[in-house]
Amino acid sequence: xxxxWWLGYFLIGPWRRWKQDPVRILAxxxxxxxxxLEPGPGMGFFTLELLxxxxxxxxxxxxxxxxxxxxxxxxxxxxxxxxxxxxxxxxGGADLGVDDLEGAVDFVLAFAVVHELEAPKAFFEQVARxxxxxxxxxxxxPKGHVRxxxxxxxxxxxxSAGLDVQSKPDIARSLSVVLQRTR
Length: 183
Ligand SMILES: C[S@@+](CC[C@H](N)C(=O)[O-])C[C@H]1O[C@@H](n2cnc3c(N)ncnc32)[C@H](O)[C@@H]1O
Fold this sequence. Notes:
The protein contains 7 helices and 7 strands, in the order H-H-H-E-H-E-H-E-E-H-E-H-E-E. The protein has a single domain (about 5-10, about 20-180), classed as Vaccinia Virus protein VP39 (Rossmann fold), CATH 3.40.50. The chain has helices at about 5-10, 15-20, 20-25, 45-55, 65-80, 120-130, 150-160; strands spanning about 35-40, 60-65, 85-90, 105-110, 130-140, 165, 175-180. Helix 6 packs across helix 7. With about 180 residues, it is an alpha/beta fold. Helix 6 (about 120-130) links the parallel strand 4 (about 105-110) and strand 5 (about 130-140). The protein is globular, with a radius of gyration of 15 Å. It has a 7-stranded mixed sheet with strand order 3-2-1-4-5-7-6, sandwiched between helices. The termini are far apart.
């Protein structure tokens, strides 16, 4: 089930930084000049940090199924002067709308989104195609919503798309892995 748009305001609340500091979480993965794909950004709790980290030569492609999420994300990016690095796309569900990115993405952030998808297999296949060989994805799911066995099923789908577990970062209230495109 897709998270309701009004919950987006809750997810960007400052309280969340105490447990899930976006700077600390993203620092190992994002560098200046990178192309980053963020499926399901919501109103951009992580996106603003991604936009800062990729610098003037990088970009963030953020795809979501809810226009209210993207409208607020664009507004927040624009207030910080970061909108030129943001490519925010409204998509229609199973199609992520990233065919044009084939082999171009350095890093993917999929935070608290895969459990909402109707077609997770197609998701991993499309994302893997968009990634450069060797590129990484941080996949993180909320412990409260996603059980370990369901998370393991997500990892199986990822593996069949060529995305293998590289490491298991410790992120509060989450089940998290870094996946790497290995083929
Ligand atoms: C729980 S929110 C997480 C938002 C953000 N990643 C965070 O951690 O704050 C999940 C987001 O995924 C989006 N979403 C759900 N299904 C999607 C799909 N098929 N494609 C892209 N985004 C989707 C929702 O609209 C929502 O913005």
